[in-house]
Inverse folding.
């Protein structure tokens, strides 16, 4: 019996028992649909999470800091608790310009940018309004290299100018506002001049300090669009100017070659290279952190979730497999004389085995295709309901869930579901097929 004859005979046998095939295939449909929906749901949640992280510019960036975990304190003999006296304190290696140059030579590094925090109290003033913000000195002439989206103005940063995050505008308030008075609207600071009031305390030797103030006038040259990241609430100044302010606050000039920088931002040419670059920086003795490490953990979680969800659907397929085995076993009892007749006219054990295995695999295949179609329809329904729900949440003023629930059915899952359900059908029919192939023709012909 050639392959074409075998397939024709299998289709004919299945067509003659449409009702039984349909009822048996329903179990496979339910099991396959369960796998498709649950795994697609986990895949959609994973993709949605990655898209949310993908919108963060820092995905291709690495934050490098001195390795404070390597700090050691050698206590004097006798042990005890270190309280600041009598021990040798070893500081971590500073991030000096030489270190930045060494990091820049790592393959895949696009740019290395030093950064410094303002080390003194500062109040931003504009007219009667005041605000506090996270003021940073950045060692680049253009913030566009960091990928920050600009709402308005320029991304070029110079001494005497600042670029502020959009949310900083919402933090301005009127300190002399009376109770019950309406809050002032956010000011339009683009191309406006603000006053930065700096405050430091100088010891007078009596245990008390004297407050010393200093004012700087700075022009706002750009507004960074809100992107749910650090830049939303930050004010960026030139690195040299922040270093000058920090020197004034500390009472001494800061030497980058000796003091180093608090941290540096390393930008990779490709996101795929981020983790490798971070590992090389760690091996240099510094601490390199990147959101990619967190993304890896998230992806690992979703892989486990897919396996768990797939296992739940697999239980339904197991029940369906029992149904296929029962159906094929009953078919043997009903078709015993037919099997005997087939063998009497020349059919071999292999032919009979192939026919019954083909019918069982056919039931699994039909159920798998039906399960995929049902699973895709259910997924579409979940997406529609999720979109409606998220639209309601957004209209209520809350949009922190991103795009919400989504079901994504990849091509590999469709192929896997068809192959797996067909394989389940094939394995379920193995015992009945072996039993049918082992029937003795004479006894089979006499069977009533």
């Amino acid at each position: 019996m050639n392959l074409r004859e075998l397939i024709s005979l299998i289709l004919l046998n299945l067509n003659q028992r449409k009702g039984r095939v349909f009822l048996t295939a329903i179990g496979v449909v339910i099991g396959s649909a369960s796998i498709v929906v649950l795994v697609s749901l986990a895949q959609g949640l994973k993709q949605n999470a990655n898209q949310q992280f993908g919108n963060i510019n820092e995905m291709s960036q690495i934050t490098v800091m001195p390795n404070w975990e390597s700090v050691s304190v050698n206590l004097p003999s006798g042990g005890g608790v270190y309280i600041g006296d009598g021990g040798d304190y070893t500081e971590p290696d500073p991030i000096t310009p030489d270190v930045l140059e060494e990091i820049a030579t790592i393959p895949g590094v696009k740019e290395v940018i030093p950064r410094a925090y303002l080390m003194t109290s500062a109040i931003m003033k504009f007219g009667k309004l005041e605000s506090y913000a996270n003021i940073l000195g950045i060692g680049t002439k253009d913030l566009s290299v960091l990928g920050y989206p600009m709402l308005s103005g320029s991304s070029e940063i110079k001494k005497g100018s600042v670029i502020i995050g959009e949310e900083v505008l919402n933090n301005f308030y009127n300190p002399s506002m009376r109770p019950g008075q309406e809050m002032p609207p956010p000011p339009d600071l683009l191309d406006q001049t603000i006053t930065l009031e700096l405050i430091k305390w100088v010891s007078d030797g009596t245990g008390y300090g004297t407050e010393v103030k200093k004012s700087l006038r700075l022009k706002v040259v750009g507004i960074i669009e809100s992107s749910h990241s650090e830049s939303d609430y930050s004010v960026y100044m030139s690195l040299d100017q922040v270093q000058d302010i920090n020197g004034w606050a500390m009472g001494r000039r800061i030497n980058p070659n000796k003091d180093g920088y608090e941290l540096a931002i390393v930008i990779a040419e490709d996101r795929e290279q981020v983790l490798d670059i971070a590992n090389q920086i760690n091996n240099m003795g510094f601490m390199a952190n990147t959101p990619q490490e967190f993304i890896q953990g998230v992806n690992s979680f979703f892989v486990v979730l897919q396996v768990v969800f797939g296992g739940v659907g697999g239980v339904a397929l197991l029940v369906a497999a029992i149904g296929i085995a029962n159906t094929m076993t009953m078919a043997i009892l009903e078709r015993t004389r037919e099997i005997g007749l087939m063998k009497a006219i020349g059919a071999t054990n292999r032919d009979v085995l192939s026919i019954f295995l083909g019918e069982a695999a056919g039931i699994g295949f039909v159920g798998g295709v039906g399960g995929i179609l049902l699973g895709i329809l259910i997924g579409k329904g979940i997406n529609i309901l999720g979109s409606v729900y998220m639209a309601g949440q957004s209209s209520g003023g809350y949009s922190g869930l991103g795009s919400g629930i989504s079901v994504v059915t990849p091509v590999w899952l469709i192929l896997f579901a068809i192959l797996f359900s067909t394989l389940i059908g094939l394995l379920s029919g193995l015992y009945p097929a072996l039993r049918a192939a082992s029937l003795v023709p004479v006894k089979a012909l006499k069977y009533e």
The first helix runs from residue 3 to 16. The first strand starts at residue 61 and ends at 66.
